[in-house]
Design the sequence.
């Protein structure tokens, strides 16, 4: 994501970002969460020195993780930001600012930008596993509604690989 009118308006995907002239790309300050797919993407494309890392953990429960990046993007401290998953979805839903442009980051071989979310229980606790699975099944529609309400990107579930 980035502010409109700052020379990145035509960027719609990560490929568009990489297609910028080298002199433009090498001047960008790109905010991202440290140890995220965004930081791996910068490393893969020799742009680590363009990154401005942010901590995903916030001590203030009233502050959602994207708030600091949002503020720095609006103030011009950073030129663009790479956020992903639930934080990006929440940001996209919450921020309907005509001054901000969202662009999608595409997964690359060995560098996914989409992940499945899973729950697990300790091996040898079948009753606990059965309870968790039952609650998930019973509240499936409610859970999906919450995920959608917060803009969490949903992807198709992979084929089951674990033994029941």
Sequence:
């Amino acid at each position: 994501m980035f502010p409109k009118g700052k020379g990145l308006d035509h960027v719609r995907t990560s490929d568009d970002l990489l297609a910028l002239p080298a002199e433009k790309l090498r001047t960008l300050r790109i905010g991202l969460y440290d140890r995220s797919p965004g930081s791996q993407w910068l490393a893969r494309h020799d742009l680590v020195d363009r990154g401005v890392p942010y901590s995903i953990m916030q001590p203030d429960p009233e502050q959602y993780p994207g708030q600091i990046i949002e503020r720095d993007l609006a103030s011009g401290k950073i030129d663009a930001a790479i956020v992903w998953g639930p934080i990006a979805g929440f940001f996209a839903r919450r921020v309907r600012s005509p001054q901000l442009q969202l662009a999608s980051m595409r997964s690359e071989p060995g560098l996914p930008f989409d992940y499945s979310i899973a729950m697990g229980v300790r091996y040898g606790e079948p009753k606990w596993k059965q309870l968790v699975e039952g609650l998930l099944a019973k509240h499936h529609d409610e859970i999906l509604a919450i995920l959608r309400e917060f803009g969490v990107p949903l992807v198709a579930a992979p084929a089951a690989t674990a033994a029941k």
Summary: Residues 20 and 60 are 37 Å apart (CA to CA). The longest helix spans residues 126-138. Residues 116-164 form one domain. The radius of gyration is 19 Å.
